[in-house]
Amino acid sequence: MDRKNTPHCAVCEHPLHERACTKPKGNAAKGCPTTASQKVLERAREEYNKEDVREFARQASIQEGECYSERGKKPFLMHPVKPRILEIIEFAGKMSYKKLGLLFCVGLAKEASLVNVILEHHGFNVVSVVCKAGCIPKEEIGVKEHEKIRIGGHETMCNPILQAMLVNEAKTDFNILLGLCVGHDSLVFKYAEALTTVLAVKDRVTGHNPLAALYMIDNYYSWLKAGKS
Fold it and tell me: Which CATH fold topology does 83-229 show?
C-alpha cells in the first residue's frame, strides 16, 4: 500500500507520545499530515480564525480539559470524572445554547425520554424527533419485502432527512443524536443546519457500546479480523 502522500495515522509506527502530532519535532511516518500536508494544515488553521468556529473549538477544548481531575498534580494521572451526557450539558451551557434538538431512534425511546427530562432539568428547550416520523413505508425508497426487518407487513422507514429538517425549522442551536443507525446518522449530519454531536450510537448487539467488539477482538470477536467470509 502506498502511504507516501495520504494520511494513515491509524498505522503510524511511532510510539504515541513520540509522534510529530503530539510532540514538537517528533517523529513522522510517511504521509504524516502534520509534516506532509502543510498547505491543507494552513487552510484548516485559517478556518479557526473565523470567530464562531474559533469560539466553538475553544470551548470544546476547555470542556475536554475539564473532564479530568487533578490536572495540576505531578505526575499527572488521567482521572476522567464526567460522563458524556454531562459533557454535552456543560458544553451547551458554555456556548449559551438554549434550544437543543434531540434526534433519536425509536428503539431508544425510553432513553430519549430520560435524556429529555435531564436536558429540561438543566434549563434547555428540547425539540425531539423520532426516526420513524412521517410513517413513510420502506417501499417508497425501494426496499423489497425480503429486505425488511419484519417481513409480511407495513414497515416504516427511518427518516433522518425529516428529523434534520424539523430541527432546522425549529431553529435549534445544537443537535444531539441518540442511537441512529449507520447511514441514517450520516444523513442527519448532511442535512442539519446546526452543528450536531452524538450521545450514543446504535449497536444492537453490545448494548450500544460498539467498542466492546474491539476490546474482545482477541477472543469472542476474533472472527472480525478474518475479513470477508
Answer: Rossmann fold (3.40.50)
